[in-house]
């Protein structure tokens, strides 16, 4: 008889991964502490050791997970902004179940730090009003992903499948991002 493997220790990262899996597969409404505990094979109360504020802390952690995007600076502010927009879009598209949190939770923790870094990178690369540019680009990226998820059928309970990748959405995003960057530089 093979030896029994010891259980995988519970960690904040495991909790967030399991919560993302539930939210992306079943929707945020179906994410309960009990369901999360079942997915992790622990009592729901064990989660509170890693997230003392419970569900509120979990929601904050999920929003932070998909919005604390960092990229290395590029030679121009436009290239840096473009990298950030694409990375943020991918993170949001990867986890449509927490898009509502990303749209409604105020930036704090790692997200606030990432926004400050983005602003500093654009300023250092020569953009005069980098804070305004970051706010504008965040609004564009979040809004475009919201429309994309809406059109994908992800949240439609009547659909069995949804479109994860759409070439038209990719082209629309790139065209919109180019227009935003031209406007911000002007």
From TrEMBL:
Keyword Transcription regulation: yes
Chain ranges of the HTH tetR-type domain: 9-69
Classification via SUPFAM superfamilies: Homeodomain-like, Tetracyclin repressor-like, C-terminal domain
DNA-binding region: 32-51
One Pfam family it belongs to: TetR_C_1
Alphabetically ordered keywords of this record: DNA-binding, Transcription, Transcription regulation
DNA-binding listed as a keyword: yes
Organism: Nonomuraea recticatena
UniProt protein name: HTH tetR-type domain-containing protein
């Amino acid at each position: 008889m093979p030896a029994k493997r010891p259980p995988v220790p519970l960690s904040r990262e495991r909790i967030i991964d399991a919560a993302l899996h539930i939210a992306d597969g079943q929707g945020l409404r179906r994410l309960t502490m009990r369901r999360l505990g079942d997915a992790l094979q622990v009592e729901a109360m064990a989660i509170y050791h890693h997230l003392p504020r419970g569900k509120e802390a979990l929601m904050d952690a999920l929003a932070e997970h998909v919005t604390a995007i960092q990229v290395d600076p590029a030679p121009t502010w436009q290239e840096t902004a473009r990298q950030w927009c694409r990375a943020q879009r991918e993170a949001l598209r990867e986890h449509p179940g927490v898009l509502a949190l990303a749209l409604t939770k105020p930036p704090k923790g790692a997200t606030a730090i990432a926004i400050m870094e983005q602003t500093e990178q654009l300023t250092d690369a020569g953009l005069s009003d980098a804070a305004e540019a970051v706010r504008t680009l965040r609004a564009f990226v979040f809004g475009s992903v919201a429309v994309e998820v809406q059109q994908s059928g992800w949240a439609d309970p009547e659909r069995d499948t949804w479109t994860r990748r759409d070439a038209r959405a990719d082209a629309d995003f790139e065209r919109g991002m180019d227009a935003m960057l031209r406007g911000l530089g002007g």
